[in-house]
Amino acid sequence: MSDNVVRPSVGAVAVGDEIEPMSVHVDRARLVEYAAASGDRNPIHWDERFATSVGLPDVIAHGMFTMGAAGELVSRWAGGAQYVRSYSSRFSKPVVVPHEGGADIEVAGHVKQVDEEAGEAVVELTVTHGGAKVLTKALATVALARA
Question: What are 112-130's pLDDT values in tens digits?
């Protein structure tokens, strides 16, 4: 992380502040790469025939991939992953990744709580795919810079 990154700071962050949204594109090749890197080689994430045989509409993204993609928004806003103190969410719906075109995960966030004494902010994320929430209760606690 560069030294000239502007981090959110105590006194400058307020409840309700919006974080610039982002979109994360995922395709089958990225899922195969993630499977290799994570060790999660479950065929529901890369084999369409297998995924549909177990009742899924198509291949689905790894839940942890989706959570990590959403966490990127907070990490960027915080000035780096090292400033994210905690992050949690619940999986509410899978991200279906068709062979043609892949899928987009839309991530938005806002400051839900600020604790100036602790120098922290809680960010609530809204994570959707195709208009449906794929993560719920997605919250991250971020260490704020002190002036």
Answer: 999 999 999 999 999 999 9
Three-state DSSP class for 118?
A: coil
Token pair recorded at residue 101: 């075109």
The candidate with the shortest Cα–Cα distance to 95, out of 126, 68, 128, is: 128
pTM over 0.85: yes
Residue partners of 107: CB distance under 8 A and separation at least 6: 21, 22, 23, 24, 69, 70, 72, 73, 125, 126, 127
For 58-101, how does the pLDDT look when each residue is reduced to its tens digit (9 = 90+)? 999 999 999 999 999 999 999 999 999 999 999 999 999 999 99
Q: What share of the chain is helix, strand, coil (3-state, %, to 5)?
A: 25, 40, 35
